[in-house]
Amino acid sequence: MASKLSDPWVENRPSRIGVVALRELWPYRELVYFLALRDLKARYKQAFFGIFWAVIQPVAGVAVFTIVFRKLANISSGGIPYLAFAFLGLLAWTYFAASVNAATTSLVANAALVTKVYFPRIAAPVAALVPGLAELAIGLVLLAGIMTHYRIVPGWAALTLPAWVLAAMVVALGAGLLVASLNVKYRDVGAVMPVLLQLWLLATPVAYPSSLVHGGWRWIYALNPMAAVVDGVRWSVLGAEAPGGEALVSGAAALVLLAAGLLYFLRTERKFADVI
Amino acid sequence: MSANAVELERVSKRYVLGESHGGYNTLRDAISASVRRSVRGTAPRTEIWSLDAVSLEVERGSALGVIGRNGAGKSTLLKIVTRITEPTLGTSRTRGKVGALLEVGTGFHLELTGRENVYLNGAILGMRRREVDRRFDEIIDFSGVSRFLDTPMKRYSSGMYLRLAFAVAAHLDASIIVVDEVLAVGDLEFQRRCLGKMESLEQEGRTVIFVSHNLEAIRRLCDTSVWLDRGRIRAAGATADVVTAYLAEVVGERADVTYEDDADLPVSLRRARLLDRHGRSASAVPRDEGFSVQLQLTVRESVVGLDCSVFLQNLEGLRVVEETLSALEGRTTRLRAPGVYAARVDFPPALASGDYIVGCWLGTSTETFVYVDDALRVRLVGASKGRSTPLVELGAPWHLVEGEAP
Q1: N- or C-end of chain B: fewer Cβ atoms within 10 A?
Q2: The dihedral of CA B174, B178, B180, B183: what is its sign?
Q3: Is the pLDDT of residue B188 over 80?
Q4: Burial of residue B193, with CB atoms counted within 10 A of its CB: 0-12 exposed, 13-18 middle, 19 or more buried
Q5: Is B352 on the interface with A (CB under 8 A)?
Q6: What's the fold here for domain B4-249?
Q7: Is residue A10 part of a domain?
């Protein structure tokens, strides 16, 4: 295919922010798909139980939570069987944490690609959001089993589940873009993230209901966008109390995080190949 | 409207030493550096202009060769044309889709099958799934690995790996193709096929930018070339002229060269020497005595399949001989354990008199660690005995007897 005079000139010159890269994500959408597929396949190749290992983390978490929060601290789960309550919360959280972790290393793990091939860099952290979805789906199948056992029937709110998953993706992308580009320059980020996510987990109503937080604290608590996501997922699937006005604060916080992550990513991405 | 496919306008690229290679990679380094800066005032930073106001144009459908020593800025040039990195100053423009054959196999994942990797690699190079579908048979045909398509690539031999990687890249639907030293790897047959494929790409009307140490390949493929020297264009124009000018400069008096150790590499070349028949350093030796090339190597980590070669180019840029250690020792050479090695190749008196440039390579069948194309120079003195000026004079034995042939 020879170049035609009608082809537009594409320029490469010093710039402050790579808006072009954002536009180019769409033509490279298949790269996102294949990067995600590669990570998923590589993760479970040569494992006898394959992708079913994905549920081991939430299952183990539920066991710990049941002992610590339920038996020892005797925390109420608002009329919902604690097993279903905690397992669903952990599924949402595990998806989020795994995606942020994958995004953190997405550029550094693909350093050879970044330095040798041109592609919109944002494809790497975006692709990091995808493999977790497959794991989440398997977790939901297990959850369906638990719900059958407790005879919980989801109502019409279950239809909003995709919206809550999308919200989790937005929060994960915002955080992921920020830490992925930071990690290119400062590898410390990779060491800090597990600790940070551990603290973030405690500030999210995964093991306990958000109704434990009272008064003015609720608004500060809502600054954590994952709080609304977990509450929302529980409302949607298990018929827990619907998220209140605080969810708007969470939504705004999520959008601010995404904007900040995107801005920082696009400002630094042109230097990735030089610094990584 | 110009008929160019690529235009570079005073493109410069600055690298701050220490920043790109592990220097500022931790927060602690960054903090301590900024503390040092505030204590000492200005920071002692070493800047390198990898490219310095380079302007050039490549016409649509033509092939441009880029030559120069290691570190002259050739790879940086390609990275800017392909938009992998941005220039510090200046503008680079391309018209049409740009595809890169930078280092073959960069995007392969060993756990995936050959088929999966073809699609993955295609996507990395910016190909749509449908494009890959359409050219799939062609790609597989070219690579010759059809029987192993559904085998994970970790079971591939390095040759199969290389062939598949090149096949995907070579079937890119790009109108501008940049190629960086793909021909340094692989066996002779593979190199010939790569070169043939690149010639046909050019004939299809695509624009090619070709960086190589292999001056012969440059001469064959490119009508025009540029010679980069420390980030600037030293010469540009018809390939034959540029190559001749380059070689004239590269050939300096050099019989004993030491190199700085590069601790980032698993192996490095520390010293190269030219020896005459008596083992003395010499840059000119009698044609009919032969000579030796001695290399001092440091192997820091053991590398599976590590190999070493010494090659000679004449002043027309023709590679006359290449002697490989594995040709003598088999695939697993004795360069296995970490340590210091002295390697010597003895060249028998077979080459015609004249000047030769000695190069050396260290690597495996898939990776190159050291590639110095102008390590030493040797002048073979003494008149040729033949009636013409051939490349080699073997002194093959004649047998003359009277009478009919038996």
Answers
A1: C
A2: positive
A3: no
A4: middle
A5: no
A6: Rossmann fold (3.40.50)
A7: no
Domain count of the fold of chain A = 1
Contact between B11 and B55 under an 8 Å Cβ cutoff? The reply is: yes
Q: Please tell me the predicted confidence (pLDDT) of residue B23.
A: 44
Residue of A nearest to B30 (CA): A186
User: Per the CB < 8 Å rule, is B205 touching A2?
Assistant: yes
Band (pLDDT 50/70/90 cuts) for residue B401 is confident
Comparing CA positions, the residue from A204, A193, A259, A255 lying closest to residue A228 is A204
Residues from chain B that touch A14, judged by Cβ atoms under 8 A, are 86-89
pLDDT of B124: 84
Q: Does domain B256-381 have CATH number 2.70.50.60?
A: yes
A216 inside domain = yes
Q: Which of A242, A241, A237, A243 is nearest to A84 (CA)?
A: A237
Please report residues of B whose CB lies closer than 8 A to that of A274.
15, 19-20, 85
Burial of B337 (0-12, 13-18, 19+ CB in 10 A): exposed
Model pTM above 0.80? no
The confidence band for B292, taking pLDDT boundaries of 50, 70 and 90, is: very high
- Torsional sign, CA B30, B45, B51, B180: negative
Residue pLDDT, tens place only, B178-187: 888 765 566 6
Q: What is the mean pLDDT of residues B364-376?
A: 84
Domain spans of chain B, in order of start: 4-249, 256-381
**DSSP letters for A149-182:** HHT----GGGGGHHHHHHHHHHHHHHHHHHHHHH
CA B223 to chain centre: 19
Of A2, A30, A270, which is closest to B206 when you measure between CB atoms?
A2
Residue A253 lies in a domain: yes
Q: How many CB atoms lie within 10 A of CB A62?
A: 23
Residues 94-123 in A contacting B (C-alpha not used; CB under 8 Å): 112-119
Domain span holding position A83: 22-34+48-275
pLDDT at B387: 64
Which pLDDT belongs to residue B22? 43
Residue B406 tokens, joined: 């038996």
